[in-house]
Structures are given as structure tokens and as C-alpha cells.
Amino acid sequence: MYKAIIVDDENRSVETLSSIIYLFCSSEIEVIGTANSIQEAYQLIQEKSPDIVFLDVEMPHGSGFDLLEKFTNPKFEVIFTTGFDHYAVTAIKFSALDYLLKPINIEELKQAIAKAKDRIEKKNNQQNFDHLIQNLRNPRDKTNKIPLPILNGFQFVPVNNIIYCEADEDYTHIYLNDNQKITVSKSIKDFEDLLASYDFFRIHHSFLVNRDYIKRYTKGEGGTITTEQGTELPVSRRRKSEFLEWLSNI
């Protein structure tokens, strides 16, 4: 049985999440405490040593991220909760940690708990926390690393190493500047959402490209771009005008 605490400044949110966990996840996780502030949560974690912390992103007098920075080597896993799909969610995704949007979806909660349990067993959370703090301190920094799911975990790759992404049904091929190609079981839409603020553009339903590697655009019905490495990629006709506008806004 895994021990959990809930950190949220809204009592209603605490009660709701506690009830959902009790009703649908009580066979694998037990809520052993709750806190309404960063300081309360810090003391509770020190006293109770939970396995999992459900952590609200935004609270008065500090964010959930401020709590994490108090721990140099966290021994617990985190599942973030938030009522807003904002900039912080991108940082969380970049760190390979999980988040839940309020109101909490039961199936998403079960999936997040399963992933947290897996990370606990593999004891590999420190790298995830380090990447989270780095991405929060330096948003839009292309040296930030993106987690690519591989067979036994994640491979963290700097954003500025990615030339382009290619869709292949439910998979995506990631092409890197060291001639490496990584195939992951995520859709290209997932990467489009994740990389949009890092100067990537979906030029075609099959291709997402990094502006830094575009060498040339050639006119045509939609046209084509040529990467610094010499690869030609098509621009779809319906995305052409938006792409050219994006390309001109340096």
C-alpha cells in the first residue's frame, strides 16, 4: 500500500480528491494527511514520509514548485493538480512527471498513480525533478531537455538537438542533429503542443520542424523547406500562409 498526502489550499478540492481516491483507488493508495500551504506540506512530508504527493500548482504565498525546491533529494513522487492548462503544464510535461486538470478525471487519476508507482519502483525521480526546476527557471530555453519515452524509461534530449518530427500513425520519429532517429509511441500532436513555444511549426500533418534548422523555403502549391542537413519536407497548402507569416516573425 502506497502512502499519499494531498496539498491544496482549497478544502473542497482536498475533500473531492480524497473521496475519489478512497472510492476508486483504495486498494493501492492511502491518503495519510493533507495540507493547505507550502509550510504545512513541508512539515507533513518531513513527518510522514509519503510515497506520493498530490500537489496543487498554484497556492497563496508560493507555488507547488516552491515546495519541491525545499528538497535537495526528494524521496517521494509528485502528481500535480491544477485548474489551469497554462505555462506550468508544459514544464511538467518536459520533466516526465504527471499532472491532473481539475475537475479530476477518474481514469486519468488511475493512470497517473500507475505511472507514479512505476517511477517509485525504478527509483528514478531525481532526474525528473531536476529537469522540472531547470525548465521552470529557464522557460523557452532550447537547451531544456524533452523526455522521449523508450522501452525502459525516458531518454532526455535537448530541444535544440531536434531537427524535425515525423508522424507515423500513433508513433512519431524524432530526427536529431547527430543523425540519430528515435521512434516513440506518442502522436505528433503531443509534440506539437509541447514544442510550439520553442519555435517549432507543424508544416504538414506529418511534419513538425524546428525553425533553427530551416535553411530554405521553395515556393510551390504548398512549397517545401530544406533543412540544414539537406532534407526536403513538404509544406501543406492549407498551412502555407500561416507558415510563411510565422517564418517572417523572427
TrEMBL record:
GO molecular function: DNA binding; phosphorelay response regulator activity
PROSITE patterns with a match to the protein in the record: HTH_LYTTR (PS50930), RESPONSE_REGULATORY (PS50110)
Name recorded for this polypeptide: Response regulator transcription factor
Chain coiled-coil ranges: none
Domain spans labelled Response regulatory: 3-117
UniProt KW Transcription keyword: no
Segments forming domain HTH LytTR-type: 146-249
UniProt modified residues of type 4-aspartylphosphate: 56
Keywords: Phosphoprotein
Domain of life, per lineage: Bacteria
